[in-house]
Structure formats: structure tokens, C-alpha cells
Amino acid sequence: MNPKKLLIITYYWPPAGGPGVQRWLKFVKYLPEFNFQPIVYIPENPTYPILDTNLESDVSDKAIIIKNKIIEPYQLANFFSKNKIKKISSGIIPNAKKQSFLEKILLWTRGNLFIPDARVYWVKPSVKYLKKYIQDNTIDTIITSGPPHSLHLIGLELKKELNVKWYADFRDPWTTIGYHKQLKLSNYASKKHKYLEKKILNSADTIIVTSKTTKTEFEAITTKPIEVITNGYDVEKVEKSVLDTKFSLAHIGSLLSERNPQILWQSLSELVSENNHFAKDLEIKLIGAVSNEVLVSIANYKLTDYLNNLGYLSHGEAISHQRKSQVLLLIEINSEETKSIIPGKLFEYMVSERPIIAIGPKDSDFEEIIIATNTGKFFTYNKKEELKATILNFYHLYKNQTLKVNPVGLQEYSRKSLTEKLAQLITQNS
Questions:
Q1: Is residue 66 a contact partner of residue 40, using CB atoms and an 8 Å limit?
Q2: Are 66 and 39 in contact (CB under 8 A)?
Q3: Predicted structure pTM score
Q4: pLDDT by residue (tens digit) across 64-122?
Q5: Closest to 110 (Cα-Cα) out of 187, 189, 11
Q6: Rounded alpha-carbon distances, angstroms, from residue 8 to 34, 66, 71, 324
Q7: Tens-place pLDDT, residues 357-382
């Protein structure tokens, strides 16, 4: 039987680095095993804030890649301040009280002039290009993946003009995501975002989300079917790592200005003061972009001497550090809006065989996953004493060389299993 053609419209694709690229890179990798022919539409000349050329080797040789040029304001704005644009584009938004005049202008411009985002000028040329491609190649099913949510506008127009079957995949929420309210939105811009969000949710044939909370939020806006397909882990070809000799606590990924766990720094500072052995063994490893506010907090708690700030590493290098660090840190912003966020790195953490210390808002979706898989401990931001006690307990286990986890039920989060779930969804609706 001939494979079913599936057009996937996404912005992030190798050589892009960071978490945004992983979801569809892995779906595309396994879709051919379920009798699908993935056709991936991406920008020809994108402005990616992070590059990881190593990911190009993971692109399926069975995928068809098609490209079209994009005009992005970030390309022009780089002329004025490349560093600030890169940070804002990657999600690092400075604290409102510490924003420079230029940063305030850039944020206001991003939120009010480019709705829903700065890739909106790719919509019209993409619709024109894809309309012909779809007709010439007899494609009846498309998937749009956001953010950037402007890509859903491409799906909206193609649905309207060609009546294709359309799945809108939301890797993150739209108007309820944490950074949305930091964009200095005017009343008009705020209403326009909500209008577009509602229109997309009520026009797509099926909505795909990554968490139960996002599903609940969207169910208040649309009656269209909503399916939860989380992110997951892949089988990585990484050599067996020797554990760090230090008591290393590693965070992989961006630490934004608002994702600054004061209770963690306070707990570590107190343990350093109270326990000389702990002080000699401690190492704080940060891998990825780190905001200045986080570094200032670490300095204020006199932890700079224990900090190993490695910056952005390739995905393969990050996996290696996950597997050799003693403890893995998972930090989410303490707000109602972030309860639905399940960081993609959680699933890679879970198969690293290292215990996780997670800090986030009460009733976070990822708390349920960590508890169900027995992969670590979760704490809300008002549980400092419990957090401190757990760190000390992990330290004692580390000294006894017995610090480990015994996870259960991980298979359902494998990328191949999740792709099978996606394939079944599309097949059932065909």
C-alpha cells in the first residue's frame, strides 16, 4: 500500500537548536514506519536564535523537505542590536524594571506590530506556494506546528481554499503562555491575539496539545476534538557516562528571568554554610542560555564559586551531561499560566537514570508525570525546607554511592510510541 502523504508546516528544523525542533524532527523520523510519507515545509532563510548542526544527521532520509523564503523583522532588527534580538527571540525577556529603552521598544514592537508573531510575513507567500504544491501532489492532510503561531494562519487559509484535513499542533499555549503578558500588548493587540486563537481553534479539524491543562483551557474556547500527545524521549546513541565526582546539580535548558528558583539558591547556600563536606563537593551546572537575573541571584547567595556555567551545548553534549550529573534540575516559572508547560527535557531526564528535583507551580502537569514514573521529587515554591531536606538526603546517598532512581512506565513516552499514537489519530480521521 502506498504511504499516505502528510504535509507538515513548521518553522524550527535543523540546523535550528533548542527544544522547539525536537518534536517534529522525531515524529518525521518515525512516521515512515507507520506508512506515512512526511513532507516538511520550512523557511529557506530563517533566523534561528540557536543552532545545532549535529541535529541534521537525525533528519529522516525518507522525508521530503521543501523550502520557501521568509522575510523576518528579526533580520532587520539584528542591525541595531543582534545580542538583544537573539535573547528576546529565544525567550529570555529581561525583568521589566531592568529593561533598557531599546529592549522596551523591541518588546512593544514584537507584541503590537507583529501579530501573532514576527513570522507573520511568511503566511501569504507560504499559502501561495503550498496551494500549488498540494494540488500538484494530491495532498489531503496538513499539520501546522506552533509556536510561532503565525504558522497556524497558513493552515487556516489552506483549509479555507482547499478544504484539506487540518491538524493544528500546539507545542505551547498561545495567549496563556507565561511570556505573553510581558509583550506590552495594547488593548487592541490583546484582543487580536485572542480573536486569532479562537478562530484557529474553531477552524482546524483536530487540535493537538502537549498537556492536559492546555486541553482543558482550549475546551473552553472550542468544541473541536482535542488530543493530548506529549513530547517524549528518543533512543540516543551516547556512550555510557561515568558519573561526575562532584555532587553536581545540573539544569539543561534556558533559565529565564522569571524562572529563577530563589528557594533552590537559598537551600544550597544554607547547606554550604552548615556542612563543610557538602561545600567541598557541590557543583551547580547550568547548560543553556541563562539570564543575568539568575546569575545575580546565584552571586547574592554566594554560590558563584560552585557555578559551572557551560552555556549552550549541542543536543548530544547535553544528553551526555544529563547522564553523568548526580541530580537533574527541572525549573518552571511560578505562575498559573505555566501549570500546563511540560518541558521537553523532562522526558530525556526520565531515561537518564538520574534523580530529578523539580520546582514549579502547584498542580503542574509535569508533577503528575514525575510521580507516576518514580523519576524524582517535585516541590512548589513554598516548600523550601522539604527541598533542602531532599537535597541533603540525595547528598548522603551520593556519598554512599547509592544515589539512583528506579523508573516505571517510561515506554509510553518514547518518540516511536508517540508517533504511533499520532499515526493512529490521523488514520482514524481519514
A1: yes
A2: yes
A3: 0.85
A4: 999 999 988 754 444 444 454 444 444 445 555 556 656 666 666 666 778 898 899 99
A5: 189
A6: 16, 10, 20, 35
A7: 999 999 899 999 999 999 999 999 99
Contact 370, 376 (CB under 8 A): yes
Q: How far is CA 164 from CA 28, 92, 136, 146, 154, in A?
A: 20, 37, 14, 19, 12
CA distance 18 to 49: 9
Task: Report the DSSP pairing between strands 141-146 and 64-68.
Answer: unpaired
3-state SS, the chain, equals CCCEEEEEECCCCCCECCHHHHHHHHHHHHHHHHCEEEEEEEECCCCCCCECHHHHHHCCCCCEEEEECCCCHHHHHHHHHHHHHHHHHCCCCCCHHHCCHHHHHHHHHHHHCCCCCCCHHHHHHHHHHHHHHHHHHCCCEEEEEECCCHHHHHHHHHHHHHCCEEEEEECCCCCCCHHHHHCCCCHHHHHHHHHHHHHHHHHCCEEEECCHHHHHHHHCCCCCCEEECCCCECCCCCCCCCCCCCEEEEEECCECCCCCCHHHHHHHHHHHHHCHHHHHHEEEEEECCECHHHHHHHHHCCCHHHEEEEECCCHHHHHHHHHHCCEEEEECCCCHHHCCCCCCHHHHHHCCCCCEEEECCCCCHHHHHHHHHCCEEEECCCCHHHHHHHHHHHHHHHHCCCCCCCCCCCHHHEHHHHHHHHHHHHHHHC
Length, in residues, of the chain: 430
